[in-house]
Amino acid sequence: MAIREDQNRFKSIVKGKVREDFKRFVTNGEMIGKREDEFVKIPLPKIDIPTFRFGAKEKEQGVGQGDGDNGQPQQGQGQSGSGQGEAGENPGEHILEVEISLEELAEILGEKLELPNIQPKGSSQMITEKNRYSGIAPVGPEGLRKFKQTYKKALARYISSGAYNPDDPKIVPIRRDYQYRTVKKTQSPHTKAVVIYMMDVSGSMGDEQKEIVRLESFWINTWLKKHYKGLETRFIIHDASAKEVSEDVFFKTSESGGTLISSAYKLCQQIIQTDYPTSDWNIYPFHFSDGDNWSGEDTRLCMQLLKEFFLPNVNVFSYGQVESKYGSGQFLKDLQKEFLDDQRMTLSQIESRDKILDSIKDFLGKGK
Q: Exposed e or buried b for every residue in 188-225, given b needs 16+ CB within 10 A?
């Protein structure tokens, strides 16, 4: 019990450290690279973990009890080192890597940004059945037999009957000693959701702009996974043409040439119509760009696609404009002109890494 209390206290300390320095974790991509399944590893300095050190009992000595005179250095310490550089005057900083679950990160994100819980659209849900172990019974399938409980029951029988011999503690369970886990089937609604990320990878979108998109998408996914188990993600890149790619390619591709945003919207529409019936799925398209588009005609086509297909069928359509010294930023202005008061559209201007948290709040603050 004491160990469990210590573990809970340590987890509370870790979560407190993350809350204190949350903006740094959001804007630093190092943590994302250490993701494993449903956990990420976070480096946390200044948490000292006490440890015990054991030595040979017969050589055990206290402070000041070793050989040698006062002030005499011990052999091999401080005399023959080959390290380079001067001695510092400050103590070293101990950095500990600890695991924290994506669920816990989502909770912290929601607290820091005061995000509302998402209300899934529509009433169409899948019902999933799960087996929950709810107790112990004297009958059941062999695969569910609890050996520890069975042994305890047999031991109690031996002791109560006087058959237990501590010099020969052999316990043989019989049929009436057997204990089994009982299973109860539970049904729970399982709402389906997909996030479709689209990104402009033309020459004006540099590495810094893509890193901002990478960080935002990680935290967006973390929050959405809290509400949708089994969340699916798809990735589209575009310049003058669009194609679907893996997540790894999405953040590493560099292209050049012009930009036709409608190419990404058409491909996104095709993916939704083919794989995600809008009556059954909660759909979240996100588009990131620096705001350059090839022509006013293509922008008008984008507006048409948004009005006629996306906005009537998705939970919310989100556009994030990442500032670039090479981009005009005109596409955001065009969207603001058409959809500024439309709650089905979310627009966010991301000027730098420092604005990532504000942008996440823009995207997730509607609770849709």
A: eeebbbbbbbbbbbbbbbeeebbbbbbbbbbbbbbbbb
Burial class of residue 361 (count of CB atoms within 10 Å of its CB; 0-12, 13-18, 19+): middle
Amino acid at 87: A
- What are the start-end ranges of the E strands in 159-301? 180-190, 192-200, 232-238, 242-245, 281-289
Beta partners for 282? Answer: 193
Cα–Cα distance measured from residue 359 to residue 344, given in angstroms and rounded to the nearest whole number: 16
Q: Please state the domain extents for the chain.
A: 1-48+94-114, 128-187, 191-364
Structure tokens at 135: 């107790």
pLDDT in tens, 185-228: 654 445 789 999 999 998 778 888 888 998 999 999 999 988 88
E-assigned strand segments in the chain: 35-36, 39-45, 95-101, 126-137, 180-190, 192-200, 232-238, 242-245, 281-289, 317-322, 345-350
**Closest alpha carbon to 102 in 201, 217, 193, 223:** 223
Beta bridge partners of 317: 345
Q: How does DSSP classify residue 186?
A: E
CATH class of 191-364: alpha beta
Closest CA to 198 of 255, 264, 251: 264
Rounded Cα distance, 214 and 155, in Å: 59
pTM over 0.90: no
Beta bridge partners of 194: 232, 283
